[in-house]
């Protein structure tokens, strides 16, 4: 009797679970053809095999399987694109159908109230938010408004490097956070700013969900969101997170509204949304407005911090380009510390512009890109992709691919001294691609430019022979300690005097 029950339950299992799966796999294979599927586990696919950050794993896997390969993360297929050629063909030229985002019920619907633009599908709501951001961040006037903040913060950046060189990573963090806080809410942020600290903590929580497909089972297997709400055990934590995040931004926003009422608000993104020429066009509900602000702060802080820290690693590990850059800076700003470089020097310092682009190309810190989702079936070079397939530009693999860049390991601004020099988006993929390309790219590119120019002009930054920098495995994610050791010293007494003189303004500016 016991034997027949076990035979019966085995047959039931085969009929209910195995056969339908095999049948749907057969149907799928008849209709579609994906690039080489990396071997994985039943149900969870490659979820346990893809490390985070996945840069070197992505490089090695691309070397093994070529220009494209497929992984299953959670229950979903992601095609990794490993050369600029295929990124260009699919995510750029076919951007109209390759620009959505995968459905993430926990991250987007529950934790973000459906309002976080970075995670939105290619929809009217996304288009509207993107239009708001683009029109305020990337018009000509914006350049002049936001540059004032970047220049002020660069003065404190050099002061912080001079007075506390061991904590250079914190100086980069303070600079980046204060610029984005000024751009979005018109106020500065100190390194121990309690509101900003809370915001960054909430970003860190979101990032865990965003980058780890197994962090929440419902994001890995979205059909679970069809369960009745009381059975969704992850929901209360997600809803609590949403309420906390909303309250954080509401607090910032309310403080700004008070400043607008008493006439002390500084020019910034939020003021523009409230009072700018197109305020009617931008009439969106309060939650959505708060999440527009939150998206900008989240997307604009750690990205710049990482890029600048990366530039410091490149200065120490590849001194040849620094010597060249410094000679040009000395020509423009004076060899005897006459003045700090400013963003108005960009035209006269193309090599610094090239270095800022190379900094993004060299070791892309969004190492395996951000998934774009295809919205309709598509064919490419013998492959047939179903709607819903995700595509990532495999950033590290492309950056280190000799077919894409000659001598890719070396930091070499020369590779960007070309006709596209002044287009921050051309020649690398670190701002993303297609219709989802980073909307804050001007702010980001200027942050990197001014930081590189000021640091090279004022400091000797050299490798510590006892602690060589492993530029491939530097953990850019860590905030609390420096990701590598480096020697930082002012170039001369004249440079010390310059820093003392110009930093007074930044140390006393309070808004
Ligand atoms: C060095 C600095 C930065 C880097 C490397 C960077 C990189 C990126 C990348 C890779 C994406 C995803 C693009 C894609 O999916 O194709 C992105 C999206 C985005 N970035 Fe940036 N970013 C930077 C700075 C900023 C700044 C300063 C802001 C705001 C002022 C910003 C706002 C955004 C927004 C709102 C999105 C979402 C776009 C969308 O989904 O349509 N970023 N960024």
TrEMBL record:
One of its GO terms (molecular function) is monooxygenase activity. Keywords: Heme, Iron, Metal-binding, Monooxygenase, Oxidoreductase. Its cofactor is heme. InterPro entries: Cyt_P450, Cyt_P450_CS, Cyt_P450_E_grp-I, Cyt_P450_sf, Cytochrome_P450_fung. Heme binds at residue 438. The keyword ATP-binding does not apply. The keyword S-adenosyl-L-methionine does not apply. It comes from the Eukaryota. Belongs to the cytochrome P450 family. This is Cytochrome P450. It comes from Hyaloscypha bicolor E.
